[in-house]
Amino acid sequence: MGTPTLYHIHFSPWSERARWALDHHRVPHRRVAHLPMLGEPLLRLRARRLRGRVSVPLLIDRGEIKTDSLEIARWAEERGSGAPLFPGEASSEIERLNALAEMMAAAGRARTTARVAADPDALRETLPGPLRATGPVGMMAGRMGAQFIAQKYGFARSDLDAHERILRESLAEIRSVLDGGDYFLSDFSYADVAVAASFQFLRPVGDRYIRLGPAGTRAWTDPLASDHEDLLAWRDRLYERHR
Fold this sequence. Notes:
CATH class of the largest domain: Mainly Alpha
Shape: globular
Distance between the termini: 28 Å
Strand content: 5-15%
């Protein structure tokens, strides 16, 4: 029997959700890093999808393919051990909060991509080691990568005000539902995983969990972060307890 393989991007909140669920349920697997843009053709072959959008996380287990963080987390729950992340009585609320986290993360990705693209030092830190050494050629590849992500997910600089509004509204609802508690439900669940991982676009979590360079950390920190220190403190406590 082969070992399940997770294709992921180390700094991606979507990949982090999948990794967290697999680790929580202690599911043995191997991880393969995906490189945006340059790794796209190979990812299409692995996903058996020659048309349409392909993305990570992508999990493959003996021909079975899972292409979404939520789907991977449910798969991990069926095969792993440990406390459930999807208690049956709360399924609809978890899916609602996951959708809210998705909305927030999509807006955050657009804003973060724009900041990274405008910061040469942050852009350089996104490059693989060999490309960093190529100077202007590597920087050109970095800019092309940022443009590729913007085109792939359909956002532009002209949309940034709308993304800020979505981010503010999503964070306000998250604060209201959490209401100062430790968890969205009575205990730790996938709702907490989905929301906490998405806060990576608000301010990166500590390097012990997801390592970014100093310029990347600066570029990934959204100007809205200072208005949401309570939520970021909640995220950090959750990581300490459960990650």
